[in-house]
Amino acid sequence: MVEAAETARAPDDAELLQAVARGSADALATLYDRHAGWLHIRLSRRCADPETVREVLQDTFVTVWRSAGSHRGGAAGGWLWVIAARRLVDAGRARAKECPAVPTPVDTETSYAGEPAPSAEDRVLAGLEYGDVGAALDRISPELRDVLRATVIDGLTTRETARLLGIPEGTVKTRALRARRELRAALAQLAPDTNPLGGIA
């Protein structure tokens, strides 16, 4: 019975990504079924255009197919969200070039004129992807970046971040403090007058 239970155990994210890296479309489909739902919800909170959300979600899993081998193991939630958030920023930049008057990406809130308005989080996300802040962010380790994105950009609680990244809550707190210190230090070298995290300690 124990052997049968072990045989029937569902593969974890790391195992699925290893299989995707070897070219398994079935593993990619399983990852999609496991993660597409929450990714769609979170993307929809940032973008009011359902078509853009669908395209970004599709692009996210195309990226997973191409770069699964770069995943470092463990739960894939944080890694997937980083990919999806970057794809959303890219989509927003592309749409802005086509139609500069349309603010993108957008939150579900709307402006007084009834048009979707970009949220503060979207502006922070764009800042973290490009320019001096993006360069500074690239200088800190991936595990610290993931925590910073989840807690600062996504506004997740410590518990939510722990679930998303598959790490203990205490680790989230420790990494968040380290991430802020390291980001400030890196940014101070690049742009001494810029403070990406405002008054957050």
What does it look like?
The chain has 201 residues and is an all-alpha fold. It has 2 domains: 110 residues, Rna Polymerase Sigma Factor, Chain: A (Orthogonal Bundle), CATH 1.10.1740; 72 residues, Arc Repressor Mutant, subunit A. Helix content is 69%, strand content 0%. It has 10 helices and no strands. The longest helix is centred in the first third of the chain and has 22 residues. The radius of gyration is 18 Å and the shape is globular. The N terminus is likely disordered. This is RNA polymerase sigma factor. InterPro entries: RNA_pol_sigma-70-like (IPR039425), RNA_pol_sigma-70_dom (IPR014284), RNA_pol_sigma70_r2 (IPR007627), RNA_pol_sigma70_r4_t2 (IPR013249), RNA_pol_sigma_r2 (IPR013325), RNA_pol_sigma_r3/r4-like (IPR013324), WH-like_DNA-bd_sf (IPR036388). Keywords: Sigma factor, Transcription, Transcription regulation.
Keyword list:
Rna Polymerase Sigma Factor, Chain: A; Arc Repressor Mutant, subunit A; 2 domains; mainly alpha; 69% helix; globular; 201 residues; single chain; 10 helices
